[in-house]
Amino acid sequence: MPGIRLFSGNRLEVLIDELAEIFRKPLRSPLHKEIVVVQSKGMERWVSMGLARHLGICANTGFPFPNALLDEMCSRVLGNLPPSSPFDPTILVWKILRVLPECIQEPPFEPLRNYLQGDQLELKRFQLAQRIANLFDQYLVFRPDLVLAWDQGRGSSSGARANDHEAWQAALWRRLLAETGTTQHASGLAGDTEQSDLYRHKADESSPEPGDPAPAA
After folding, report:
1. I need a surface site. Which of 10, 50, 89, 128 has the fewest CB within 10 A?
2. Which has the higher per-residue pLDDT, 213 or 126?
3. Quick one: CATH architecture of 67-217?
C-alpha cells in the first residue's frame, strides 16, 4: 500500500525486522524504487546491510536524507522550485571553504581559529567545512526557527541556549546567505507553514542545538 510508514523504537534490530517484512511484499512495478529516509550515510549502510541479511539482497532502494525528500515532495506539488538548492550540503561545503578564510579572524570565530592550527590545515579546513555544511542542513530541516532568527539578525529563540558556537554559526550563515544572494531555504518555508495546516513544527529536545562541529583533533 503506498504511503509513509513510521515505526519508532529504541532497538534497531526490531525496527530492521519490521522494515524487512514490509520489503518482502514487492511493489506493483519492479521499476519502482523503495524509499527509506535516513539521517546519515552510516545509517544508510547499516539499513542496507540489514535488509540484505534478511532478504538476501538490497537493490533498487533509495536512502534520501529528510531535506532531500522534502525538496522532492515540494517540487512535485509546487512544480516551480529550482532543480537544486544552493543550500544542499554538497554545494554548501564549497561556499563555506570560500568564505571561511575571509571571516576566520573575526572575534566570533575564535573557536574555529583554535581548531585550525598545526599540521594538515587544508584537510582540517575541508573536514570542518563538511561538518558545518551537514550541521546547517540539519538546522534547515529540524530547526527552521533558529535559521529564521539568524536571518533576522537575532539569536536562538531561547537566550539560555545561545553559546559561543552559535555566535560564529549565525555570522557564517549570514555571510553565506549574502554570498548566495537568495532566501530560498527552509526558514522562508517555515514562515509560510506557520499559517498552514499542511505542516506543523515544534523544536524539542531531540532537535540539534548549536554546538561544536569540529572533529576531534
Report:
1. 10
2. 126
3. Orthogonal Bundle (1.10)
